[in-house]
Amino acid sequence: MTKEKQTDEILRESPEGYRTMTDALPVLVWQSGIDKLCTYFNKGWLEFTGRTMEQELGNGWAEGVHPEDLRQCLEIYASAFERREPFVMEYRLRHRCGEYRWILDRGAPLYSSPGTFLGYIGGCIDIHDRKLAEQALRESEEQVRQTLEFNQAVMANMGEGLYALDSRGLVTYINPAAERLFGWSSAELLGRKMHDMIHYQHPDGTPFPAAECAGLQVLQTGTALSDSEEVFIRKDRTFFPVACSSSPIKSGGGIVGLVVVCRREITAQKQAEEALYKSRAELRALAARLQAAREEERTQLARDIHDELSGTLTALKMDISLLPDRVAKDHKLFSEKLSSMSGLIDHTLARVHTIVAELRPVVLDVGLVAAIEWQTGEFQERSEIVCETHLPTEEIPLDPERSTAAFRILQEALTNVARHANATKVVVDLRSEAGSLILTVRDNGKGIDEKAIYAHNSMGLLGMRERALSFGGTAEVTALPGGGTLVSVTIPTK
Ligand SMILES: Nc1ncnc2c1ncn2[C@@H]1O[C@H](COP(=O)(O)OP(=O)(O)O)[C@@H](O)[C@H]1O
Ligand SMILES: [Mg+2]
After folding, report:
1. 160 CA to middle of ligand 2, Å?
2. Atom of ligand 1 nearest to the CA of 463
3. DSSP string spanning 140-174?
4. Second CATH level (architecture) for the domain 367-492
5. How much is the pTM?
6. Which CATH number fits domain 3-126: 3.30.450.20, 3.90.1150.10, 3.90.226.10, 3.30.70.20?
């Protein structure tokens, strides 16, 4: 037995039973006849509207429908009715307390068992609270969207550079002003570590580790940093001063990121500073080029001396060594001269070898460790200063430029010990640690005068610093508390 038949039967056989049933339902039920006019409302309906059955019958119910919804409501009802189709509609119905409430009304045609159309039956539920919640949600979504659009428009059009980082310091957003400021496009920066792109070096060329960056500290401390003066680096590696403010982005009690707003400092003083950074960078580039040119010339010179002098001397020596047998048998003086000449040639050859070795970075032929071993041995022999070495047992893999730089720094440090320190002992240490080459030269002499360290005529010390710097490393010279001088050099191995 189908449900429709069941209802129909109840309706036919016991109208009272049917009404009792619909009255018990927690919904608003209505029924209409073949003339579209309403013939019945259940208790739920009448309690909702607070009106009597008589008031609602016929078209009376329409008085309770919100005037703005009535037209559509009647149209849907009428057109479904004509086609005998079920319908669903939402409209506002006046509650007995005077307030209009949204209801959902589902209507369906009603037939007797032989198939005669009897009219419509419908059931409604109160969806007011749901409807309001939906509306509130739509409104707040709209508000969020508008706020976002507004923020985006502000960020895109503001004159200050603005970028956002996530908790790891990776770029999540950068505005057009910041793109112009840094010379990097948004696509090039997104997902990259911002510090490594724009803040990796101090204006003097020394590395700026992220751990020392005050702006990034905000990610840990959560305390905003305003108007700090920083020097950032453009894509073309030029430095420029900025004033910037960094604010933490907090969410759920944690710090999830950082927003940085920065403005270029364009006061005369800052412009002068920027020009200074630029000329310093140019000087550094020039110094690096000069060093390279010098190495090239020395190599060339070494090759010339070796090829010309060594060759000629060796030939001369061979000639002389043949002479005594043939000519000089009874000329004692002559043979003495010849052997002294031969000695001189030996001596000169040895000198030529040393000069060539000093000119040409031996390091290129034998590796840094072996070159240092050779150089320190040579130094000890010539200077009579005891030279203790602590070197790795194996060669450190290093490109020729870095090996040469480290080797030249060592040579300069040793020369200084011999010339200025008045030392009896020097200790040379070399190790490879955490991607860097670490070289120290410590003497037990009188100690360096602090003023000499940065004096502008201390070209040897400056050269050491520049050589290390050109690979992103450092070379520091310090007077040791107990006397003596320490040169410590760090050069990244890659
Ligand atoms: N190991 C050292 N012990 C004491 N003084 C030193 C030492 N190394 C350098 N100095 C001082 O630092 C100055 C600068 O050194 P440097 O730049 O190499 O120039 P130079 O060797 O041509 O004098 C030296 O003139 C010397 O006074
Ligand atoms: Mg010197």
Report:
1. 48
2. 17
3. HHHHHHHHHHHHHHHHHH-SSEEEEEETTSBEEEE
4. 2-Layer Sandwich (3.30)
5. 0.50
6. 3.30.450.20
